[in-house]
Amino acid sequence: MDQKQAQEREQSMETANQPGIYKTILVGVLVSILGVYLRFAFDATWLSILSWVILFVGAFICCKAVFKILDAK
């Protein structure tokens, strides 16, 4: 039983530490930073709406990667 739990834990750690997940988080953070920059860079209604959309897309990308890490079993 302990051997099986150790193998499952090791497999979970390998899945959670995949470089692709952390690259996804990095992309999400960069997209979010772009959205925040555009939010405060200029004063236009259409640009403000676009920047909020970009910000939420970046946050969604980050959350998706974090939940992928948490779901690693």
Mean pLDDT: 88
Low-confidence stretches: none
- Structural shape: rod-shaped
Largest sheet: none
Radius of gyration equals 18 Å
The count of strands amounts to 0
Residues in helices, as a percent range: over 70%
Portion in beta strands? under 5%
- Give the CA-CA distance, first to last residue: 16 Å
* Derived structural class: mainly alpha
Order of helices and strands: HHH
Total helices: the number is 3
Keywords: Membrane, Transmembrane, Transmembrane helix
Transmembrane segments: 21-40, 46-67
Explain this structure to me?
Helices cover 88% and strands 0% of the residues. The chain contains 3 helices and no strands. With 73 residues, the protein is mostly helical. It has helices spanning 2-16, 19-41, 45-70. The mean pLDDT is 88. Helix 2 (19-41) runs antiparallel to helix 3 (45-70).
Secondary-structure blueprint of this entry?
Layout: H1 2-16, H2 19-41, H3 45-70
Helix pairs in contact: 2-3
Report a brief summary of the structure.
The protein contains 3 helices and no strands. With 73 residues, the chain is mainly alpha-helical.
Keywords:
73 residues; mainly alpha
